[in-house]
Write a structure and sequence with these properties.
Elements: E1 42-44, H1 87-91, H2 103-106, H3 110-119, H4 122-127, H5 133-139, H6 142-156, H7 167-183, H8 185-188, H9 193-208, H10 217-232, H11 240-249, H12 256-263, H13 265-272, H14 276-284, H15 287-298, H16 308-318, H17 323-339, H18 347-360, H19 365-368, H20 373-381, E2 384-389, E3 392-396, H21 401-422, E4 436-441, H22 444-455, E5 464-466, E6 477-482, H23 496-508, H24 514-517, H25 523-538, H26 543-551, H27 556-559, H28 569-586, H29 588-600, H30 603-614, H31 619-629, E7 652-653, E8 657-664, E9 669-676, E10 682-688, E11 691-698, E12 711-713, E13 720-725, E14 730-750
Parallel strand pairs: 3-4, 4-6, 7-9
Antiparallel strand pairs: 1-5, 2-3, 5-6, 8-14, 9-14, 10-13, 10-14, 11-12, 11-14
């Protein structure tokens, strides 16, 4: 019951997929999973490539490990309201004359190298981050780096808090050197103890200079680069005192380059946690963690989710991952979680901290006061609670009445479409999955921020269908989704129709629970039918699948073997769609036989049908079909036959019903009518079959004739179709006129 199936291509977050034991006694919301129940079986969906970038942190991704590379570049983005510098100041803090800036200009040693470095401007130094391997090898050998480090040490003795002596360029040279040596270690050569000692002495001298602590724009320019150099040189543990001073210095009024200097501490802290020496230094100085918490509380008025205080607060949360730091970090993390709201501007801070508490201090939710976090979040986040029908409920952050009504209608209509495709006889034996809850977050970011806690799921995906245990009478199936914000102002729930098909397929096609259906490879069908119904029901051309068809990558017999473990997203979704579409269109009898086995739970029999009875028999025809489909000619599935109308008056039609044996002699009519409730958006009338030639006429609220009509279809034979948009409510009238006497025709109405 507890296995959470994930796609092979999905990034696995270290979320606790089972609720912590200490949460077992917590009161539960009707819309959150029960605490003592393992996570429901689930179908994860891929993210859309159109998901917009968001600078705010996502739980599980934030600050769980440092970067491998020294930080390149120098421009740190800062809030507009805190920026006190002009564009010119940011790009060139010192007013040096333009100088030549090529690798050959710096291919020097000793005093000549130092003079070259101090003669150019900061923009020149920044450009060296882009050197190739050859250029890097000319400029940044260990001896050259040590020479510049010694020059920085000497210049720091008289540092006056400005860049008049070009100390900023010396710092930047060292930063570039560490960066390019990481990129091109073989060409640049190893850096050893000699350089480490020289850089340490240089940083000691700079941070020991009294004016390096000036809270000014001028000092901040160089100070910010020097703080990043701490990390580039892997000296994070040595300079925790400098970092702590900067953390304690940030206030809401701090701006310009001093803000940048504090911002640079994020790199030192995040990457520092990779080094035992840094952890030991923080263990010896509990005031460091307190300084991180203090920065957050002093600057909480500016929380936006993507701000510096949020980032530092989340880094504080990462400290509970380390046994040596847990005791000092836990009370600070607890205070921040309970100090600020779970939603709104502080949500990214509190939810990320809650993630660390849940996943890095397992079993202690009661200490943090978050054992009931899922229950508390539901009413705070999902403010909309709408019932479409006894079997369908929508919980959402924000949806208008129109959006709710349209979604309910879409799902209800899809239900009918699905049954017309799979031609089932009702739920499979023992399936009690009568209720589906659709949860809709405002955006992918909101989904990733809250859904992991509310529903114990991974969130690095495009949504999740939780099937639960369909044998239980009180089972709650749930689809957790988010709005496709990139489609706004149009309203769209990403993967809605795909995931609803999973619910319908599990209830009407696949016996037992999800694990039962996975005993043999069924993913080609499970994901393929979800894609097929989603695109076909919405009448949307599946361009990605058509493009894949043109490539002809797979044989049909190969696709029958698809699993989540042996396939990428293209094979699972695009090719699953193609395989299902081909089989439904070209071999409906085989599909009926296959689904009969799936519905009976005869997985071995279904597998034999696919691999032995069918085997490779259709591979050649499938290849031919793919060639045509790759040009857009994929064919169509025959529309299902509607049931017979039941009204005793043979002229009267109803929703989705037909009458057979319709006839009229030449020049005469067969008159018909149907009652439409208010709100019908589209009425479709079709005629087919039989002999002769009957033309179809529609006239709204009065009898339809050749001289009184609003729409007509007058082809040869009896194959006529009329689609009426926004017809009036009440009785509407249509007829078949015998251009040539006809008989044996069928007439169908759908709306």
């Amino acid at each position: 019951m507890g296995r959470l199936l994930t796609l092979a291509f999905a990034f696995l977050l270290t979320l606790g997929f089972f609720a912590p034991q200490s949460r077992a006694a917590a009161p539960q919301s009707p819309s959150s999973p029960t605490a003592d129940q393992p996570a429901p079986r689930s179908f994860p969906l891929p993210k859309s490539p159109k998901v917009p970038d968001d600078a705010r942190p996502v739980p599980g991704e934030a600050l769980t490990g440092g970067q491998d590379a020294p930080r390149a570049g120098t421009a740190t983005q800062q809030p507009a309201q805190q920026s006190a510098r002009s564009k010119a100041q940011r790009s060139a803090p010192n007013a040096l004359a333009a100088a030549s800036c090529t690798p050959d200009d710096f291919a020097k040693t000793g005093t000549a190298l130092v003079q070259q470095v101090t003669s150019v401007d900061v923009a020149c130094m920044n450009s060296l981050f882009n050197l190739d391997a050859t250029g890097s090898a000319k400029v940044f050998r260990e001896g050259q780096m040590a020479t510049v480090a010694d020059a920085l040490r000497a210049a720091s003795a008289t540092y006056d808090g400005t860049n008049n002596a070009s100390i900023g360029q010396l710092v930047l040279f060292l930063r570039v050197g560490y960066y390019v040596q990481w990129r091109f270690p073989d060409q640049v050569g190893a850096y050893g103890a000699a350089l480490a000692g020289a850089t340490r002495a240089a940083l000691d001298a700079f941070f020991g200079a009294p004016r390096s602590k000036d809270v000014t724009q001028a000092n901040g320019e160089t100070l910010s680069e020097a703080v990043i150099l701490i990390d580039s040189a892997h000296e994070n543990a040595r300079y925790t005192g400098v970092v702590k001073w900067l953390l304690n210095s940030l206030t809401p009024s701090t701006g310009g380059a001093m803000w940048n200097a504090v911002d640079s501490t994020r790199t030192v802290i995040e990457n520092g946690t990779e080094y035992p020496g840094f952890i030991a230094a923080l263990q010896a100085d509990p005031s460091f963690a307190a300084a991180m918490a203090g920065l957050v509380t002093r600057n909480s008025s500016g929380l936006t989710g993507g701000d510096l205080a949020t980032s530092i607060g989340i880094q504080l949360g990462s400290l509970v991952s380390f046994p040596e730091l847990k005791a000092q970090a836990r009370p600070l993390v607890k205070d921040l979680i309970n100090r600020y709201p779970l939603v709104g501007a502080s949500g990214p801070l509190t939810m990320n901290l809650a993630w660390f508490a849940e996943n890095k201090d397992k079993g202690n939710c009661s200490y943090y006061g978050i054992c009931d976090l899922p229950t508390r979040l539901v009413p705070l986040v999902l403010t909309v609670d709408h019932t479409c029908s006894p079997s369908l409920r929508i919980r959402a952050q924000h949806m208008s009445a129109t959006e709710l009504a349209d979604t309910c209608t879409s799902l209800a209509d899809q239900d009918a479409f699905f049954h017309s495709v799979v031609k089932d006889d009702g739920p499979v034996a023992g399936d009690r999955n009568k209720r589906l809850e659709v949860v809709v977050f405002d955006s992918y970011y909101d989904y990733s921020l809250y859904a992991w806690s509310m529903y114990d799921i991974e969130v690095d995906n495009g949504g999740m269908y939780l099937e639960g245990d369909p044998t239980k009478a009180d089972n709650q199936a749930r689809f957790i989704a988010h709005e496709a914000t990139w489609e706004r102002p149009a309203f769209q729930i990403w993967n809605l129709n795909h995931e609803y098909t999973h619910y319908l397929d599990g209830r009407y096609d696949m016996a037992g629970d999800f694990d039962a259906g996975m005993t043999t490879p069924t993913i080609w069908w499970v994901e393929g039918i979800a894609e097929y119904v989603s695109y076909s029901y919405r009448d949307v051309r599946y361009d990605d699948a058509i493009a894949q068809a043109a490539k002809g990558t797979y044989k049909l017999s190969q696709l029958f073997d698809t699993t989540y473990d042996n396939a990428d997203s293209t094979r699972i979704y695009n090719w699953g769609y193609l395989a299902v579409r081909y089989m439904l269109q070209s071999h409906p009898q085989d599909m009926a036989a296959l689904l009969a086995r799936y519905r009976a739970g005869d997985w071995a029999g279904a597998r034999t049908l696919l691999t032995s009875t069918i085997g490779t028999r259709y591979d050649a025809d499938f290849a031919t079909w793919l060639t045509a489909c790759g040009t857009g000619r994929c064919g169509t599935l025959q529309p299902p036959q509607a049931p017979l109308c039941t009204q005793p008056d043979t002229r009267q039609y109803d929703k989705d019903c037909r009458r057979d044996g319709v006839a009229a002699t030449t020049g005469n009519y067969d008159y018909m009518f149907v009652y439409l409730p208010a709100g019908v958006r589209e009425l479709t009338i079709t005629s087919s079959g039989g002999t002769g030639n009957g033309d179809l006429y529609y006239n709204g609220s009065s009898w339809a004739t050749t001289s009184s009509y609003l729409a007509k279809s007058t082809g040869t034979g009896n194959g006529e179709t009329l689609t009426i948009s926004n017809p009036p409510s009440g009785w509407v009238f249509f007829s078949l006129y015998a251009q040539q006497g006809f008989s044996g025709a069928s007439v169908t109405t759908r709306y």
